[in-house]
Amino acid sequence: MDNLAQHIQNPHLIASEDVAKLEGLSQEFPYYQTAQLLITKGLLNTDSIRYNRQLKKAAAYALDRKQLFKLIILNKVEQPVIANISEKIEATLTIGQPLAFDKEEEHSFSEWLALSKVKKIDRTPKPNTKQLIDNFIDKKISISKPKKTTFFKPMDVAKDSLIENESLVTPTLAKVYLEQGHYDKAISAYTKLSLKYPEKNSLFANQIKLINKLKEK
Q: Taking a C-beta distance cutoff of 8 angstroms, is the pair 149, 70 a contact?
């Protein structure tokens, strides 16, 4: 892929047509984590409904999940607020839309990892796979293996409910709980948010009302 280096240097410019090419690359070299990370960023750039699923896949492939977190918050563009309330509760709650993490929301990202039960991919090469990867790197571009850094421990985080600490509660964290079907936790988070941001009390109260309706379905 001729413009791979350009995508690595400017991941925020990856478009939908680039995603298709990167997916072809990932099929040819399934253990090539850079392709998985760039696909994830491309889907986020294009506001794709496939983003959340790809994010989970990239987290499994990532050698360094902190680098994945930095990538998805890089040059993040705020999504427009939906003005009209949809008839469907799921649409109103924007379930399925990309989870937009801010740079201060490592805890929310960690909780998402824990709730999604994302496990590292077994990188034991299949027959001939290692040689294919080596040939690709030699011919295309050399990417150094990132140093292992201490990052999130999802299992530890899962043991301690983050919503007990109001300073860690964010709209994204509430959305994480909602996306994973933890409705009671989402309600608790939105309740704390209404106290944290009283000017948005009516908005969060409406979210709680909709979630309660969703629980009854």
A: no
Q: What is the pLDDT of residue 39?
A: 92
The overall pTM is greater than 0.85: no
* Distance in angstroms (rounded) separating the CA atoms of residues 202 and 205: 5
What span, in angstroms and rounded, lies between the C-alpha atoms of 57 and 62? 9
Annotate 113-137 with b (16+ C-beta within 10 A) or e (fewer).
Answer: bbbbebeebeeeeeeeeeebbeebe
| Spatial separation of the C-alpha atoms in residues 67 and 183, rounded to whole Å | 30
Given a cut of 50, whether residue 83 has pLDDT beyond it is no
- Please, what sign has the CA dihedral across residues 154, 27, 141, 44? negative
Residue 139, both tokens: 């011919």
User: What percentage of residues in the chain have a pLDDT greater than 90?
Assistant: 12
CA proximity to 30, closest of 110, 108, 126, 104: 126
Q: What percent of the chain has pLDDT over 70?
A: 69
Residue 82 pLDDT more than 60? no
Cα angle 44, 48, 52; round to 5:
70
Rounded Cα–Cα distance for residues 132 and 18 (Å): 22
* CA pair distance 153, 120, nearest whole angstrom: 12
